[in-house]
Design a protein that fits this description.
This protein is of the alpha/beta class. The protein has a single domain, classed as Rossmann fold. The protein contains 7 helices and 11 strands. The protein has a 9-stranded mixed sheet with strand order 1-4-6-5-7-8-9-10-11, sandwiched between helices. The chain has a two-stranded antiparallel sheet with strand order 2-3. Strand 5, helix 1 and strand 6 form a beta-alpha-beta unit. The radius of gyration is 17 Å and the shape is globular.
């Protein structure tokens, strides 16, 4: 697995915190993880980080996806990564992050980009955690924010979608949530389950809290990572012909259970 950094800047949109323009553009420094061989092109996954913590704490799960044969682009959002935003930290900027993800997809996959030959721009997925899961849901299923290039969405511990959420888009969805989440109530994912009507899965991690699973915590990480890669292989990479692996890996008594609909 190899890592590189891209200095991406969307000059078409301003950065505005609490009504005050901070910058005339949106800076999106992006860490990219990809297989360290000469193969490819590989499917692209954009990973959306949670509020305040930025992409750094998610290196483990990004590496898992890259090791499975994906190019993983993890941008730092300008107003929800505390290390960058500082006093301008603004959760109210979340609705703008779907546009950031769209820009990252275009930038990483475009002809002439540093990794253009490594990226299969016809196979794109979005994975997000916490507020980043809200962004993933936006780009999958929210009017005027959805990107039709996104073939599948993974939302780990999201909030319920606002009015209009779930009314557009057809990308399959993998919801994941620990039922002992102390930050985002598990019930939020049960609401999302009813909002999004596409083919979807709901992985419940029994006893799991908010962040440790995506950082590799036992006993849930093994199940989470298997199901995540199974889902991406099925619906982004096109490497599996059915849902059998998702279903079998998602059921482990005392650790995890999975259900499907749509």
């Amino acid at each position: 697995m190899t890592t590189t950094s891209l200095s991406l800047v969307d000059s078409s949109r301003k950065t505005v915190s609490r009504g005050r323009t901070i910058a005339s553009s949106r800076s999106l420094p992006t860490t990219v993880y990809y297989p360290n061989d000469d193969g490819g092109p590989y499917p692209l996954v954009v990973f959306a980080h949670g509020f305040e913590i930025g992409p750094g704490p998610y290196a483990h799960i990004a590496q898992v996806m890259a090791a499975a044969g994906y190019v993983v682009a993890a941008p730092s959002f300008p107003l929800t990564d505390r290390n960058r935003a500082g006093a301008n930290l603004d959760r109210g900027d979340l609705p703008n992050q779907a546009g950031d993800v769209t820009f990252v997809i275009s930038s990483v996959a475009s002809a002439g980009a540093p990794l253009a030959g490594r990226v299969d721009s016809s196979k794109v997925g979005v994975v997000g955690h916490s507020d980043g899961a809200d962004t993933a849901l936006d780009i999958g299923y929210f009017p005027m924010r959805a990107d039709p290039r996104v073939r599948a969405v993974v939302a780990f511990a999201p909030d319920a979608m606002g009015a209009g959420g779930g009314s557009v888009g057809s990308a399959p969805l993998l919801l994941e949530h620990g039922d002992h989440d102390s930050v985002v109530p598990y019930s939020n994912s049960t609401t999302v389950w009813g909002q999004v009507k596409t083919h979807r899965f709901f992985l419940t991690l029994v006893g799991a809290d908010h962040l440790p699973v995506v950082q590799g915590a036992a006993p849930w990480a093994a199940v989470h990572e298997l199901v995540l890669v199974d889902f991406l292989d099925r619906y982004v990479g096109g490497r599996a012909g059915d849902d059998s692996s998702i279903a079998s890996h998602g059921n482990k008594p005392g650790v995890a259970s999975i259900k499907t609909a749509g």
